[in-house]
Structure formats: C-alpha cells, structure tokens
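ESCALATION

Customer reports they have been waiting on this structure for their group meeting. Please prioritize. Original submission:
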Amino acid sequence: MPEVVEKVTRIGNLAVHAAQEENRRKGIANVYSLNGKIVWQLPDGSITTVRPAGL
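Update from on-call: job pushed to the front of the queue and completed.
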C-alpha cells in the first residue's frame, strides 16, 4: 500500500477512535454494521441489535 494511503488511514483510525471514546464519555451509543446488520454499542460496552430509546 502506498505510504500516503497508510498515513491517511492511520489518521482516520485515530479520529474514529477518538470520536467513539467521546461518545462513550457523553453516554451516546456507537452504531456499527456487522454482517449486514445494524448494532449499537452502548456506553457500558454492551452490544445490542435493539435500537436504544431516543435514537
């Protein structure tokens, strides 16, 4: 992989991880797609396929 692509990917990963941690601190669920299904990671770290209230 070209060096510039690796650098941009590294920067993007750092930004995503920072945003996920900020969401946890603020009590906001992180949303992901796993195997084509939407899942939510709640601030306590648990994973659910049920949409949390208020979203």
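Sent to customer with the following note: The longest strand covers residues 30-34.
Escalation resolved.
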